[in-house]
């Protein structure tokens, strides 16, 4: 099967407002499709936000991200990367969650990614709230702990919420460390800021060796310097990238459940992803886009553009492996 079967539909062939929406106008290849074994990178929706503790809405993100992704074109204008030439990409559809049961939903997500992993596909996920990352890591990090670069305004390292409940969008990486899914000494969290309940999460990070770079340090040092340290921390081992849209200042990304003032602008939001080039990335996600809080779609458009930047970095890895024909 030729690589042309896995390229986006061009806006010169079919207007961008026409056709059935898929991520970046790529072919839809569900898990039972005979073409699954041909896919290098799978774009996946996780429409689930049962881990949200205040303002829900990220369950609606994959649908809006698909719609706005019709504006994505063939080549990265800054890095010149042609991701669809380097890797066979497809929209693998959505994981079907159980909105009434957190544990069942996480089991469903892990089972979905187990199939993706077994097919040798590198997953790029559109969530969903940040709890979505935990069941993904339960699949990707099961055999060995991964490094992780995490863009966010919160660490998501808290022990529990509301009297001991351990599974919310504020706890996924505490669980991931406890379950041995990520190696804390190869984890870098960037952009952390905002008022706090306490410093339990920071104390845990210090205790296990997670590097937290608060927003004040990010702005003082600049993108290139911070990302050079992040790459050094992750090293050459397999690494996961998790990108919460609330990493970005709400002036540029208001459509999220827990916005924090003082973050990066939209250009820096893309720049940090470009600085991931050279890492051994095995999967990535963009989470916490919440369409109900930004009717304009601007937050989702930034989110899908970040997703495209992630795709470019991941496709370059596939291309260097010679993974596509």
Topology:
Layout: E1 41-46, H1 61-68, H2 83-86, E2 89-94, H3 102-118, E3 122-127, H4 133-140, E4 146-151, H5 172-178, E5 182-192, H6 200-208, E6 211-214, H7 215-221, H8 223-234, E7 238-244, H9 266-274, E8 280-287, H10 298-321
Parallel strand pairs: 1-2, 1-3, 3-8, 4-5, 4-7, 5-6, 7-8
Question: How would you characterize the overall build of this protein?
Answer:
The protein starts with 40 loop residues before the first strand and ends with a helix. The radius of gyration is 18 Å and the shape is globular. The chain is an alpha/beta fold and 325 residues long. The protein is built from ten helices and eight strands.
Task: Provide a brief overview of the structure.
It is built from ten helices and eight strands.
Q: In what range is the share of β-strand residues?
A: 15-25%
The portion of residues assigned to helices is 25-40%
Q: Biggest β-sheet: count, sense, barrel?
A: 8 strands, parallel
* Order of SSEs: EHHEHEHEHEHEHHEHEH
CATH class: Alpha Beta
Overall spatial form: globular
- Major sheet: order of its strands? 2-1-3-8-7-4-5-6
Q: Specify the CATH homologous superfamily.
A: Ureohydrolase domain
Beginning-to-end CA distance, first to last residue? 9 Å
Unreliable stretches covering 5 or more consecutive residues = none
Radius of gyration: 18 Å
Number of strands: 8
On the 0 to 100 scale, the average pLDDT is: 95
Separate helix tally:
10
What CATH calls the topology is: Arginase, Chain A
């Amino acid at each position: 099967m030729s690589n042309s079967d896995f390229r986006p539909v061009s806006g010169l062939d079919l207007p961008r407002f026409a056709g059935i929406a898929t991520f970046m106008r790529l072919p839809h290849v569900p898990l039972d499709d005979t073409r699954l074994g041909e896919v290098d990178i799978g774009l996946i929706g996780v429409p689930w936000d049962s881990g949200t503790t205040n303002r829900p809405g990220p369950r609606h993100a994959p649908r809006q991200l698909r719609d706005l992704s019709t504006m994505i074109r063939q080549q990265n204008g800054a890095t010149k990367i042609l991701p669809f030439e380097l890797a066979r990409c497809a929209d693998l559809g959505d994981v079907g969650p159980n909105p009434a049961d957190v544990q069942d939903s996480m089991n469903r997500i892990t089972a979905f990614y187990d199939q993706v992993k077994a097919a040798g596909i590198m997953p790029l996920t559109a969530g969903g709230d940040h709890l979505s990352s935990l069941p993904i890591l339960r699949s990707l990090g099961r055999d060995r702990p991964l490094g992780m670069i995490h863009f966010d305004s919160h660490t998501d390292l808290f022990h529990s919420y509301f009297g001991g409940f351990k599974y919310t969008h504020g706890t996924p990486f505490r669980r991931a460390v406890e379950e041995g899914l990520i190696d804390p000494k190869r984890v870098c969290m960037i952009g952390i800021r905002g008022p706090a309940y306490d410093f339990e999460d920071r104390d845990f990070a210090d205790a296990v060796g997670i590097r937290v770079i608060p927003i004040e340090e990010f702005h003082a040092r600049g993108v290139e310097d911070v990302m050079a340290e992040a790459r050094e921390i992750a090293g050459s081992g397999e690494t996961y990238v998790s990108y919460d849209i609330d990493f970005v200042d709400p002036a540029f990304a208001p459509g999220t459940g827990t916005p924090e003032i003082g973050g990066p602008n939209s250009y820096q939001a893309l720049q940090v992803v470009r600085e991931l080039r050279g890492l051994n990335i095995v999967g990535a996600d963009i989470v916490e886009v919440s369409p109900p809080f930004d009717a304009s779609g601007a937050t989702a458009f930034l989110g899908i553009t970040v997703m495209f930047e992630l795709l470019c970095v991941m496709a370059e890895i596939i291309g260097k492996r010679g993974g596509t024909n």
